[in-house]
Each structure stands twice: as structure tokens, then as C-alpha cells.
Amino acid sequence: MLHVPATADLWWKNAIIYCLDVQTFADSDGDGIGDFGGLTQHVDDLAGLGVTCIWLMPFYPTADHDDGYDVTDHYAIDPRLGTFGDFTEFMAVARDRGLRVIADLVVNHTSDQHAWFRESRKSRESRHRDWYVWQDAIPDDGPEGVVFPGEQSGVWTFDTETGQYYLHRFYHHQPDLNIANHQVRDEIAKVIGFWLAQGLSGFRVDAVPFLLELDGIDAIDREIGMDPHDYLRDLRAFIQRRNGDAILLGEVNLPFEEQRRFFGDEDGDELTMLFDFIGMQSIYLAMARGDARPIVRALRQRPEIPDDAAYASFLRNHDELTLDKLTDGERDEVFAAFGPEPDMQLYGRGLRRRLPTMLGGDQQWLRMAYSLMFAMPGAPTLFYGEEIGMGENLAIEDRLAVRTPMQWTSGPAAGFTTAPATAAFRPFPDGDFGPEEVNVASQRTDPDSLLNWFERLIRLRKSAPEIGWGEYRVVDVGNDAVLVLQYCWGDRTAMTVHNLATRAAKVSIPLGVETATLRDRLGSASPIAAKDATASIKIAAHGYHWFAVEPAP
Ligand code: GLC
Fold this sequence. Notes:
By secondary structure, the chain is an alpha/beta fold.
């Protein structure tokens, strides 16, 4: 029997996460900027789609030089997005519709306009001086490499007022907080406690490896033997004390060997979830080649993770689509296939396009890609607009190209705002992916639309907890283009089949049981009876199937 109660306790293992930015989602007061009032009006759309957890990108007051990731006050709401009252109303509606809400926790750095930094930079004696990392000279053993090549000249900036350098792993206007300082650690805990008290179910933790990094901080200023992972453990324990089922979902784009530590190794007492950056990149390489082997390799190299932990799968997020874990040659293959123009690429490692434009609007391919992402062992994560196949606007600078306003209707300003389209927070794409062609309203009434397909996919994924919970294995079917994954949990077995190639295929799947029936749960294939422990199936070009494997009684 399926152990349903467990799926509620460890809700994140089967969550369907939906990332959105309040300012680009829906505007309720006609100023052209999305707000909590507008978001609240659309909670039912998200509940109807079936997502279970909304991830809010930063909605705090900001100097707005990094789209909200440069926070000026961790305890408040950006006034452009509404009041605390509006936030609370949104939370009440989300809770009523059964949706959890998590939010970005940006504490590796603050804005240089934050009161803490303004105080810190005033004098070397300031009481907040050591909240940031200051040095007389750029240390030899400090951190190396910039995150935004071309936009950042280094990670230390000289401050003329007090004649010292401060550390910033990101832009110069984002000074890094000093976690070796216990007051900083206490303050971060307070921020977490504050937002948990407002009803959040956890956080997407920004830039975790940088947050934990102590390089560049003078050894004498670090507490003797301080292990930053102890700190992460403390944070997890704290969050659990305040809210037993809250999670920490970390942005940790590191090689597999280093990921396990961030889960807390076998103790599983650090991050609850990590984004599967490597799995994501492997899917793009596999799609570029029409060959599933890169995904097989990524799945085989994945570390064992603690029982309660999970990966979050995704195909797109709000940043450049990073391909940094591929080799140069592999990355060039993906660039050639999905973003050949220099303007489509960013930082030499990523793409600033959304998936539907990369695939030339090919619906079959697009659905195969999302079906595959949902079939990866982990919790599927969507970036707003993916459910309707929104495209990007390359006329907008760098990473912001994919952060255009949500396209609700084909009407003026896409139903995003009552202000004229020219006053909308960011310009919409035009052409085939503009609001006239791609919008929620028209897809809602079309049973074959991507939106309605997603609703079915999400319903199916929710009813297949074995993907998040079970043991998975790659089934070898002797055809490199076809990826067959089998998941077993309790008495349930699910099997997904994805054809990465543009050629139809016929494969024989070894089942491990003598006789069984494969029931297609997403497509319309008739039940397949397996004989001699093998099922033979035909799969279309870019085809996909989700089977329940039912052994003969
Ligand atoms: C993370 C965010 C990115 C932001 C950076 C600095 O990588 O995803 O959008 O610019 O952190 O906060």
C-alpha cells in the first residue's frame, strides 16, 4: 500500500514549485508594476494549474540594481509591490487554496544602500564595521573569479572614505556580509524567524556556497576552527525549531562531489533541497544531440542523498541558463543548437532565452522536454510563464530578457496592467511569442493548449509520488536516444519513456517481472501487455510516455 501520510510530512519531495516575481506577475493599481494585490487575484490560476508551492523572488525594499537581489531592508516589503497588509492578504488566500509559499533569502550580501552597510562604511570604528569584510589590501588568499564576467572587474572595491577594500562576490554594490561575525549570524536568524512568523514555509537560499565562504576574512576574525557547514546546520536546526516543516532550498551550483556536503552528508541536517543544475544542463546537451546518454551519465553520477532530502528539477530559472558544468565543446554544441547568436548568450556560459524559442516553438519537442524534467527524480520547478510557453525579449539587457511581464490576455498590455503597454514594468516580446499569440486566457479555453497539458502533467506527477520517493534506475533498452526510467516505491512501479531523437523508435523494455501490463497515464497508448519479462513499445519522434507497471495478479 502506498504510504500517503509520509508524502504530506515530507511535502517537498513531491512539491510542484512555481517561481514568480511579484513585480512582473500582475499589476492591480495601474502603475505598470506588478504587486501583491495583483498576485492575489491570480492565486486561483496557480491553484488550478496544480502547483503546490509558490517561490517568491525578492520582494523586499531594494536599490534595484540587481532586480531585487540587492536588498536594502530585510524586514519590509518593497512599497512599489504593496503594503504588509497586501502581503498578508496574499498569504491568507494562498493558504486557503492549499499553497505553500517560500521566498528568496538573500543574505550573502546586502545592497550598499542597506543601513547596515551605510553604517559599516562610515568609519573603521563603526559598530557595524565587521558586519562586512574589509581589508587594507586585496589578500592573496582571497576568493578568485567574478560571477558576472564583463560586468564586474573584481571582487574587492576600494572605499575612499575609510581607505579599505570591501568584498563583494557579485556586483560592487552588493557587499558581502561577514558570517564569521556572530552578530551577523544572529541577525540572519532573526530575518528567517521573522518571515517564518509571516507564514512562509521556507526559503530559496541565494548563493549558498558564497554565503558560507570564509576566504578573504582574516583568520583572527574567524572564530577558532569555525566550520561554515556547522553554521548551515545551525540555521537548519533553527528553522526547524520555529516551523517544523519549513525547508531550505539552496542555490548550490557545484559539482556532484561537493553537493552532498550541503545536504549535510549522511546526517541530512543542512539544506533540505538543492537545485539540480547538472541534471538540467544534461537535458539541454541531450536535446542538442538527440541522445539521452548525457542524462544517464548525470543520473549515475548523482550522489546518494539523505532520505529526507530532495533535488529540485528545472529547465529554466530567472538567471542566464547556465551551461557552466558542461565542457567547452559540449557547451558549444548547446549554443549552436539553441542560441547561436552572440546576443542570445551571456557571460560565455549561458543563454538568455526561454525554452520555447530555443526549440523553435515545436510543441511536441517542448512537451517532451517538460515531461522529461517532471520525470527526473526530484521536485519539478517552473518559472512563471513556462506553463503557457512564453518567450523572451532579447531587446532587454542581460538576464532580464526572460523576466518580462506575465501574459494573461491578448488585450492591451497583455492583461498585466491597466496602464498602457509602454508603461508596463518591462516590454513584452513581440511576434510569435508576444501576448497576442501566447497568453493564459486563450489557452484556458483550448483543451489542447500547453496550459491545459501542464495541468494534466502536474496532476499526473502529483499522483506518482514514487518519482519523488522511490528508488529509480535507468533501464537499458539498447537505444541511446530513448531514456527509460523506472521508479519503485512500496508496491508501486512507474516507468517513463522519453525519445530525445527526431526519429520514431521501437524499443524492448526489460521489466524484471514475467508478466505485467503497462498502462499509459499521460498519453493515450492502449495498455501494453508484457511478455517474457519484456514490453515492446513504439515511441514517436520526441515522444513520451508515463506508464504504471501493473504486475499480473
Ligand atoms: C543569485 C540569483 C541572481 C542574483 C545573485 C546575486 O545567483 O539567482 O539572480 O543576481 O544571486 O544575489
